[in-house]
Amino acid sequence: MEALIFISLLVAGALLGLPMLYAVLAGLAVFFVFGLRRGIPANKLFGVMIPGFKKSLKIVSVILLLGAMSAAWRASGLMALLVVGGLSLIYAPLFFAFYLSFKRWIRFHHRLLPRGCERDGHFAVHSRERWQRRDAAHDRRYSFGDLFRR
Q1: Which residue, among 35, 30, 32, has the nearest Cα to 13 in the 3D structure?
Q2: DSSP letters of 18-75?
Q3: Does residue 147 register a pLDDT over 80?
Q4: What pTM, to 2 d.p., does this model score?
């Protein structure tokens, strides 16, 4: 019951746009009240909360440092530089050649995929004749040498 209340507090806080700290503190209060109602003394509850808080403070500090580092990278333009630099490394004809070879591998090796993938919308299985007609039309339109010409 307590966990359900805590989850609903988290969802309500997210929908209302409140900081998650408020929802977490409200959840802490809910757990504290439920502990008191079950007959656990307050000093014992505090005795459990304080060491748990100290342990989680290490994790929170690491997350805070990661957030500050990624914000600094975004502000300095490093993220954009990495994206542009990564996209400039992709040679489009070679990328499409790998893409087409992957699609062909999936087409002829769909039996190696887990059961259910063959009915998936992306890897739909059709009759062999339809694939052969499609391959013949594709080979007439695109030859492999055309991919590497500039």
Answers
A1: 30
A2: --HHHHHHHHHHHHHHHHHHTT--HHHHHHHHHHHHHHHHHHHHHHHHHHHHHHHHHH
A3: no
A4: 0.42
